[in-house]
Every structure is written in C-alpha cells, then in structure tokens.
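TICKET: design request
STATUS: open
ATTACHED STRUCTURE:
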C-alpha cells in the first residue's frame, strides 16, 4: 500500500499552485487535523481512491461523514477497505490522519475511455450518413432427420457494431409475419457476417433483412444440399451494445425498440420532468485566493442557454479623482465604474458594488459576496468577463427539462400479469448500469419470436425498465464531470452557490426517499448540500425520485424490483438503513429472508454463466450486513411501502490480479471492454430475476409446515421451531387464540442466521399457519374468517 500512498501524496502536493476548479465540503471527523494547504488551493477535481480503514469505529465515522463514498466495502483477512471520491484537500486530511490511500482511477484513464467512446459514436454517425448496405450471403433451408431449418448469412457495411441490429422477416404459409434477429460472427477480432439458424415448420419463399440503421435487402430462400447436423434449433441472440451511451442515446434507443415491437412494447413517459441539463450562467469577479472579501459572484436569472451566457461585466477605474460608483447597463453588458479617492484609486467595497449591481442590473443578474465573506474588500478594475453556465455537452443534448421514460414490455400490459421494475443510473457516474437495462430489453424483444423461454417471460410478465433515472446527472457525468453522482438541481444557499462548487451540487437520488431517511435519524445520508450523499431538502423532493414512486403506485401488480448500481459485485436487499445505534429498519420475516436467499441463487447462477463471475457470499445479503447504511434508498421504500421484493445489483465485481495476489476494483467507468462484459453478465442476472417473477406468478402450491420440539432436561423447558416446505412466513399464537395476520411471526435468530426458535416454559398449545411469498396460505386457511383449519399442537413441559 506504501506505493499507492506515495502516488496519491504526490498528486495532492502537485496541485498546490493550481486555482480551484471544483469543491466538495471538506470531510471532517473528531480527529480531523489542520491542513497545510490553503482552503481554495485544496478544492480540486476529485479522484477515485481506496482507503484502508483501521477499525470499525473509523469505518462508522467515515460512513457518517460527508465524504463521497462509493458502494464498495471490502473486508478481507482482518483488513477493511472502502472506496471514495475525494478532493485533494480530503486526501491530505486522510493522509495526515494516518489512513493509507491508493489511487484507483485517474482522470487520464477516464479521458481515454471517453475518447474511445466518441470514436465509436463518430463511426456510427458516419456509417449512418453514408447509408448502411446489406449483402445477403446465404438464405437456405434444409431438412434432415431432426427437422426443417432456415439458415441465413448477411453482411453489413456497418460491421460489428452491436447497436446496429439485423432482423430477418418472412411470411409463413398461413400469411403470418415471422421474424428473427441475426447474431454477429466475429473471429479473432475480424467481423465475418451475421447469421441465424432456426427450426421452422414452413419454408418461406423469400426473406427480407433490415438493419436498425435503415438498410434493407431481400433474397429468395433456396435449398441447401447436404444434411449436416444442426444445433438444437434454438436461437437466442445477445450482445446489443458497443459503446457507453449517454442518457439521450439511451432514451432514443428504447423509443426505437418500442416503435419496432409495438405488439409487445410501449413507452411510458413518467410524469415528473427533471430540472434539465441546464444552469444559470455565473462569473466570479476578483481574486478569491488572496482577497476573497473583495470577490463578487454574479448569477444570471436566465438559464445560460437562454441568454445568461451572453451577459458580460466589466469593472473600470474612471481614472479621475473622487468619482462616484456607477453601474451602466446596455442590453447584456454591465459596466461598473468604481468610486475613487482623491488620488484616483478605487475605494468601492464589494458590498457597495454588489448593492449597485443589484439595483441597476437586477433584471439580468444577482450579485452576492463570495461564500461567507461580508464584502469588506476593495474591488479592483477588471477586464470584461462573460458569464457562462459551464456546460460542455454538444448542442444536440437538450437543455430543457427531461422526460424520463420507461419501456414497458409484455404481451398483456394491462396490470393482469406479475409486474417487474428494473431501473438504473440513479447515480449518474455509473455508466455500465444503463447498458444492463438496454441489453435486457433488447434480449426480451428480439428473442421473443424465436426463443420459447423468452416468449414465456414476455407473455406472462409486465416488465418496466427505466434505463436512466437520472438523465441530467448522466449528461453532466459524460460531458462535464465524470464523477458526478447526483442530479443537477442546486439546493445550496448563496454562500455555497458559486461556480467553484458546481461539481458538488445536486441531490443523491438514492438517499432522497421517505423510508429510513437521514431526516428521520438514519445514517448514510447527509443534510449538507455539497455532500456526495446529500438527501435533499426533504424526503422525495426530487422529480426523479417521484417518478419511481409513481410507477409503484400506478402499477400495484409490480412485485419485483431491481435497482442496478455499480460497482463492486454486490447483490443486496432490505433493510438498507440503520440509526446511530445500528438499529436497522425492520428485518424481513424468516420466511421472506429465506426467499431472498433462494432467489439469489437463481440470479447469481445466471450471472456466473457469462464468464464465470461469482458474487462473493460476503457481498450477498441485506445491505447493512454486507455494506453500510444507505439512508433513504429506493429499494427500502419499494419494500416497506409497496410490498415489492426489491434488490440492488452492484455490477462490476472485483477482478483477481494474479501478479499482485489481490482483488482489483473495476471502478465506475472501466474500459468499455470490461464494461461490456459486466453488462452482459448482469443482463443474464436480470433474465434470472424475470424467471423468479414468472415462477412467482404461477405459484399456486400451498405451503406446508410442521412444529419441531427439543426438550431441555436441564432447564425443564422445550425449544420449538418450525419447518416449512418452501420459504414461508409462520404466524403463531401461544395464548390459545386463533392465529391471524396480526399474530407474532417467526423472525430471524440474528444477523445472517436462520429462523428463530422459541422457548416454552410451561405446557402450551401452539396454533399457527404459514403463508408463502405468493400469498398462498397453508390448508387454504382464512385468517380473517371463522375457519379453524389452522395447525395446532400441544407442547408439554414436564
């Protein structure tokens, strides 16, 4: 670790003379020491670092602090490691407190990833402009001992770009339209062609191949001579992504899918528009490092793109004795003539200039002191400065409020089928997560006509996929500040609203919900508007958070939810928050907990199938048991308020480095080659969750339960426990009353332990029933009726 410390310390010291470009509130704990850097010199852009934490007490302090922690915590061989996004000032504070620090991702590495992404985007645009061309190499049918098969090979000038999808369409002998998606074939890095091999009943005369870039070609279907041995006739296509996509691309992608598959998909526009990828234009007048009391912050009333970026200001010394302070406004230009003394030197204070600007140019801008200064410094002349919103996205990225959209997939989208909600990019910097969502949607739609298992899911489920919950923050992460976690809504007061703080504004959408919130005393969120985990001014204040709740409220058939995050390779479920005494939100019953674990096995097996990735047992389980408290997270509100089995993926499992003998973190924005693999394997996991939901929807099997007794001759008591035929909640009474839904339930014995047992001290009649997660009740007993077909057993104590 010493090497990592030296590398990071060198980075911190190298920026001592750089003027600040970004700011995060300085992390503090009771042990914080004074920094040798000046405050503003330490307010630099941030880095992804790993902190070696000496003990649990220090861990609790970090979780409760305003440090921007990632969802990554590693306990191994008695050592605790956690990752964070930190400014140079925060790094120096941590180093001086004795923490070991290691760099994970540098700005240079992220810039290279962005360069590669832009190259792919440019190539796709060029191909689209030049018009994709298709060449059908083969369109054959053959019959052998196994059946009749259709085989097609087609080559596209677009090559192996996964976002360009080739589809074969034909008409069968009954006049019904049939279709299938072709798979790309690549060998040793060379694109060969796209192909499909299908078991068919009717041989078509012609096939038409279309590409999603707009190309089309047609060919007659001819007989293939020979009787090779085909595969099993199944055709399941995967891999539809070829670059990181910004939220605009992501939204256009699902709109195109819904348009292409109108019979089984539609777009749901969520009702709460975001603030938009926009900001007011700003400028700072004066030297904030050497004379902050004379510095002035100007903020336009208009959004930058709506006129704020055209406003300019100039401070002039009239170079005459005893001049009065004057402000002249002409269109978008503000000219300030400073007051002078008898020797023609400026004497206007920042407070006086601020008052004058607000009086004369208040229709254009608001002037405020810099941070907590009182404006006591003398303002000096300054050449013309133009205000700017500082946003760097290209013009095609809209600055208007964004309509967040879900793609709804299912044959019957009327609420009659079991609903599943998948959503990603709550945290803007998690670029892989929307790819998981898109890959899942593509697989469901493009394999529907050719794969029986896919058809089963689409026909029997009502699937909602929101690939980008946080589009404003997502755009900001791609084009302005890659480590952006929050949305772009600035709730900070004037003293924190200068442009040096721009990378720290926003609300952590996964801390903004109403269950287990920091506003209710739970930890793992912050009320500091500059903190990475800022929970917002109040619960569910943000439109992005409201949209998720709206989906749950409007679609009570949703019974399963997956919140797709990165990174670290975790698989978690509620409770997600605890208070300062480490008292968690109510734990699931023993039966519900057993179901979470049972479902996990199916989902994690599916993830492993792609490239062997194993989500570690120590990173699987309730959030507080494997990570730390996350106050106000969205999975908790779905579970506790809407009865949705809600999970959290943290895609991007650590990779083992045999050279160092250590697990290596992949980070939020790994090279696309790694991000692609993460998307593929966790899309597998999403299909696994859909399988779980499908089984739930057709579960009509009644659970069974039995009572087990273990006498303790020493104490003269009897320990009782229950066994169930499947994960099921047991409701019981010991006072002779009939069991109901209000009766006691069997809970967990302890953290990560199984069901509790009960000590009986005197002869007791135990009455009980069990109910599985699908709502099936043992023996069809009605706890709210007059029936007595519950279980009962006398437990005798000698």
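STATUS: resolved
RESOLUTION: sequence designed for all positions
ATTACHED SEQUENCE:
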């Amino acid at each position: 670790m010493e090497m990592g410390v030296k590398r990071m310390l060198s980075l911190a010291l190298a920026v001592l003379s750089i003027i600040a470009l970004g700011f995060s509130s300085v992390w503090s704990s009771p042990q914080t020491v004074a920094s040798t850097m000046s405050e503003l010199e330490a307010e630099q852009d941030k880095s992804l670092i790993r902190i070696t934490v000496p003990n649990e007490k220090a861990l609790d302090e970090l979780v409760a602090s305003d440090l921007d922690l990632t969802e990554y915590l590693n306990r191994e061989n008695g050592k605790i490691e956690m990752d964070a996004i930190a400014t140079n000032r925060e790094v120096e504070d941590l180093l001086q407190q004795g923490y070991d620090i290691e760099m994970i991702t540098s700005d240079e590495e992220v810039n290279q990833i962005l360069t590669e992404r832009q190259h792919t985007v440019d190539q796709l645009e060029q191909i689209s402009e030049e018009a994709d061309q298709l060449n059908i190499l083969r369109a054959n049918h053959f019959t052998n001992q196994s059946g009749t098969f259709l085989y097609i090979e087609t080559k596209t000038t677009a090559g192996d770009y996964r976002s360009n999808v080739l589809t074969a369409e034909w008409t069968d002998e009954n006049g019904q339209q049939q279709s299938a998606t072709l798979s790309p074939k690549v060998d040793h890095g060379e694109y060969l062609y796209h192909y499909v091999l299908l078991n068919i009943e009717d041989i078509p005369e012609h096939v038409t191949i279309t590409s999603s870039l707009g190309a089309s070609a047609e060919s007659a279907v001819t007989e293939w001579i020979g009787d090779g041995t085909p595969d099993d006739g199944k055709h399941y296509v995967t891999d539809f992504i070829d670059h990181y996509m910004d939220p605009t691309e992501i939204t256009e992608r699902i709109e195109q899918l819904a348009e292409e598959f109108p019979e089984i998909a539609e777009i749901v526009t969520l009702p709460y528009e975001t603030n938009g990828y926009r900001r007011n234009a700003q400028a700072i007048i004066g030297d904030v490092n050497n004379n902050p009391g004379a510095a002035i912050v100007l903020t336009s009333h208009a959004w930058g793109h709506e006129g704020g970026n055209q406003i300019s200001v100039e401070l002039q010394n009239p170079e005459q004795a005893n001049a009065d302070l004057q402000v002249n406004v002409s269109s978008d230009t503000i000219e300030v003539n400073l007051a002078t003394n008898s020797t023609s030197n400026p004497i206007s204070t920042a407070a006086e200039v601020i008052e004058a600007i607000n009086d004369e140019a208040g229709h254009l801008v608001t002037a405020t002191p810099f941070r907590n200064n009182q404006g006591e410094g003398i303002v000096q002349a300054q050449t013309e400065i133009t205000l700017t919103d500082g946003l760097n996205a290209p013009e095609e990225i809209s600055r208007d409020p964004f309509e967040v959209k879900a793609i709804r997939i299912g044959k019957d989208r009327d609420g009659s089928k079991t609903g599943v909600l998948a959503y990603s990019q709550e945290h803007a910097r998690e670029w892989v997560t929307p790819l998981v969502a898109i890959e899942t949607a593509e697989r469901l739609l493009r394999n529907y006509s050719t794969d029986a298992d896919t058809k089963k899911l689409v026909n029997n489920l009502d699937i909602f996929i929101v690939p980008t919950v946080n589009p404003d923050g997502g755009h900001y992460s791609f084009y302005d500040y890659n480590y952006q976690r929050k949305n772009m809504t600035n709730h900070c007061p004037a003293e924190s609203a200068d442009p040096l703080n721009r990378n720290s504004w926003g609300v952590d959408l996964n801390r903004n919900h109403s269950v287990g919130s920091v506003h209710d005393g739970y930890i793992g969120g912050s009320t500091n508007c500059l903190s990475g985990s800022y929970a917002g001014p109040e619960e569910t204040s943000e439109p992005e958070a409201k949209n998720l709740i709206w989906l749950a409220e409007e679609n009570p058939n949703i019974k399963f939810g997956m919140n797709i995050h990165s990174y670290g390779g975790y698989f978690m479920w509620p409770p997600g928050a605890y208070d300062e005494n480490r008292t968690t939100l109510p734990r699931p019953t023993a039966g519900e907990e057993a179901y979470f674990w049972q479902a996990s096995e199916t989902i994690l097996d599916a993830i492993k199938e792609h490239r062997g990735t194993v989500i570690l047992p120590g990173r699987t389980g309730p959030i507080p048991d494997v990570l730390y408290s996350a106050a106000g997270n969205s999975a908790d509100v779905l579970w506790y308020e809407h009865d949705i089995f809600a999970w959290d993926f943290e895609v991007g499992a650590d990779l083992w480095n045999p050279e160092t003998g250590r697990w290596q973190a992949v980070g939020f924005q790994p090279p696309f080659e790694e991000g692609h693999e993460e998307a593929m394997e966790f899309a597998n996991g999403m299909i696994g969750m859909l399988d779980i939901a499908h089984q739930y929807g057709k579960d009509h099997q009644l659970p069974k339960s039995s009572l087990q007794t273990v006498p303790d001759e020493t104490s003269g008591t009897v320990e009782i426990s229950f066994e169930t035929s499947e994960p099921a909640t047991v409701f019981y009474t010991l006072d002779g009353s009939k069991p109901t839904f209000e009766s006691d339930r069997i809970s967990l014995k302890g953290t990560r332990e199984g069901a509790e047992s009960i000590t009986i001290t005197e002869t007791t009649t135990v009455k009980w029933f069990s109910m599985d997660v699908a709502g099936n009740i043992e023996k069809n007993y009605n706890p709210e009726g007059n029936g007595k077909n519950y279980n009962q057993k006398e437990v005798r104590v000698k």
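CLOSING REMARK: The chain is about 25% helix and 30% strand. Residues 1-38, 226-232 have pLDDT under 50 and may be disordered.
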